[in-house]
Write a structure and sequence with these properties.
Structural class: alpha+beta
Strand content: 25-35%
Helix content: 10-25%
Length: 376
């Protein structure tokens, strides 16, 4: 299972380790960078995605990945040149950010060696493209709308939508946005939206803190040891997918240390956490909605206070049905309190236990006596 860091709610503190390593070297090669307005424009725009200390500017990074927030990612090494004629070799993304945040009005990058390769999002998937000359570079900036201002203003209402992306190996990963507005801002349409059932929100800070060290496997199958929050956020920003190496330890919001031994354990923890956070953000007013779905061969109908609560449980508009029959059924139930409980797996993947006032109310939503379990 791959995880993707999707949105600005994850507080990204520091992306680059400036004090630890400087990966810039003076070029000694016969290749000569070509003067390029496009590289100056690209780095000037990319610089706005960062604060002056090299940390991410969250307002400019809705998804938390360079390919989707900026438009493309360079494949290294690259050779750049400054306006004073100095040439530098960029070995990796850390080198690029070091150069970029240090640029001033009097000292800036205005040259690059062609051709060079990039990763970008094209036709529903991540692809590698070769940029052969300045005209192709300018075309890339125009196609990815890199020079345009991002005027999107989205609410923080949690009504998640997902899109499916093809990776470089032909596999797929799911990218989740907190609501449709964020997806549209990144260039997706409502037709591109798929079920979020298999997506796990990676805004881990809402649910727990990592206990370091632990390790992950990045997009290119490399093992990365994570020693600090900065290590993790740096790795996530540069990898559209990654896998944890189990087991690893966390500190929950209840200040309890817990060992995560498998992907199933992590999924269960996150689903419980995000479902609770989602429900806490729902309004209390109606109108009520009803949903219908199949669970272990039974057709169940759930009544929700409003669409927000239904969405938190993983339902979408296609699941909505008329509430009249269920409400009428409720009206015919007695007020005698003989509670019954049922266990059900919701479309969001969370297994929950519901308690009904009595068996009649449970039957109105499709449960039978064989479904009843002990109410703890």
């Amino acid at each position: 299972m791959n995880y993707k860091n999707k949105f600005l709610f994850l507080a990204i503190i520091l992306i680059i380790f400036f004090s630890c390593k400087n990966d810039i070297s003076i070029l000694e090669t016969t290749e000569t960078p070509t003067e390029s307005d496009a590289i100056k424009i690209a780095l000037t725009v990319l610089k706005t995605h960062f604060n002056t200390d090299g940390s991410l500017n969250n307002e400019e990074n809705l998804v938390g990945n360079i390919i989707f927030d900026f438009g493309f990612e360079f494949i290294y090494p690259n050779t750049l040149s400054y306006n004073n004629g100095t040439e530098v070799v960029i070995e990796n993304f850390q080198s690029l950010v070091t150069v970029m945040v240090a640029m001033t009005d009097s000292l800036f990058v205005n040259g690059i060696t062609f051709p060079f390769n990039i990763k970008t999002f094209v036709n529903g998937g991540i692809q590698i493209k070769t940029i052969n000359d300045e005209s192709e570079f300018i075309q890339l900036l125009e196609n990815r709308r890199i020079t345009e201002n991002n005027d999107c203003v989205c609410t923080e209402i949690f009504n998640p939508v997902c899109v499916e992306i093809q990776d470089l190996n032909g596999g797929n990963f799911t990218l989740e946005f907190p609501n449709i507005c964020y997806a549209i801002c990144e260039g997706f349409t409502e037709k591109a939206v798929v079920s979020c059932n298999s997506a796990i929100n990676t805004n881990f800070a809402l649910c727990f803190e990592f206990i370091y060290p632990f390790s992950i496997i990045d997009t290119d199958s490399n093992t990365i040891v994570i020693n600090t929050t900065s290590d993790f956020e740096n790795a996530v920003f540069l990898n559209y997918t990654f896998d944890f190496i189990y087991p690893f330890n966390i500190d929950t919001n209840n200040n309890q240390e817990e060992t995560i031994t498998s992907i199933e354990a992590l999924e269960n923890l996150l689903r419980n956490c995000f479902s609770a956070n989602c429900l806490d953000n729902c309004p209390t007013s109606g109108p009520a909605v009803c949903t219908e779905f199949e669970n272990n061969g039974q057709i169940l109908t759930f009544v929700y206070q409003n669409t927000c609560f239904a969405t938190c449980d993983g339902f979408t508009e296609v699941d909505y049905i008329d509430c009249a029959n269920t409400i009428d059924c409720f009206d015919n139930c007695s007020n005698d309190y003989y509670p019954v409980c049922v266990e059900v797996t919701l479309p969001n993947g969370l297994t929950v236990i519901y308690q009904y006032y009595n068996a009649c109310y449970a039957a109105c939503e499709g449960f039978i006596s064989q479904n009843f379990i002990n109410c703890i």
